[in-house]
Structure formats: structure tokens, C-alpha cells
Specification:
- It is a single chain.
- It contains five helices and two strands, in the order ααβαβαα.
- The protein has 117 residues and is mainly alpha-helical.
- The protein has a two-stranded parallel sheet with strand order 1-2.
- Helix 3 (56-61) links the parallel strand 1 (41-44) and strand 2 (73-76).
- Helix 1 (5-11) packs across helix 2 (13-33).
């Protein structure tokens, strides 16, 4: 599971996001080296500070390239279940965003951060 809440509180959102980005790249490298199929599990809270992100599609694309690979496991917490899945139309839209983000992450070429970062 990739954590958000505590790391964002401890280091700030930018530093926490960058550390998670780098950690995911490292985990993928190790998994590939040992031929392990890796699926990250993302805990998403309601607020940004708890890992929530109202821009779900862009949030999926913010993960390092080649880390999702068509597999994305996510959990919603508390009030977000009702907000994102409580009405049929809203649930379908949420699932559409997740599906589109996973496909886009797999098939769109995205920039790789330079060493200076």
C-alpha cells in the first residue's frame, strides 16, 4: 500500500509525493528484477491531506510511468464512499475516471523527471 496521510503530515505534500514517486520506481525496479508482478494499493482519503484527490484522472497519471501497468487497486474511506458511489450516475463516472486513467497510464507516453529533480 502506498501511504499518503501520515507522510504528507510529516514532510509536507510536495516532499511526500516526491518520496512516494521515487519509492514506487524503486519497488518496480526490484519487482522486475525478480520477475514479480506488482500491483500497488492506493488508500485514498477524502481531503488532499488524507490522500484524496478530486482530480482522479490526473492523479493516476501522476504516478511514475510503468508503475500501474493496467492494475490499480484503490480504497475509498468514510464519507468518500457515499460521495463517489452513492448515486448510480456518480458511481459510473467515478469508475469511468479510474478506468480511463489506468488505460491512459498504460498507453500514453509521459515525461520522465530529469536527474536534477
Amino acid at each position: 500500500m502506498v501511504g499518503y496521510s501520515d507522510s504528507a503530515k510529516d514532510a509536507g505534500r510536495m516532499a511526500a509525493s516526491w518520496a512516494q514517486y521515487c519509492a514506487q520506481e524503486s519497488m518496480v525496479e526490484i519487482a522486475n528484477k525478480h520477475q514479480i508482478e506488482l500491483t500497488f494499493f492506493h488508500g485514498k482519503g477524502g481531503t488532499v491531506g488524507r490522500g484524496g484527490n478530486p482530480a482522479l484522472f490526473r492523479a493516476i497519471l501522476a504516478h511514475p510511468p510503468n508503475t500501474i501497468n493496467g492494475r490499480f487497486r484503490v480504497t475509498e474511506q468514510g464519507e468518500m464512499i457515499t460521495r463517489n458511489y452513492g448515486e448510480t450516475a456518480t458511481a459510473l463516472r467515478t469508475l469511468d475516471l479510474i478506468t480511463a486513467g489506468v488505460f491512459a497510464e498504460k498507453y500514453e507516453q509521459r515525461p520522465i523527471p530529469s536527474q536534477e529533480w
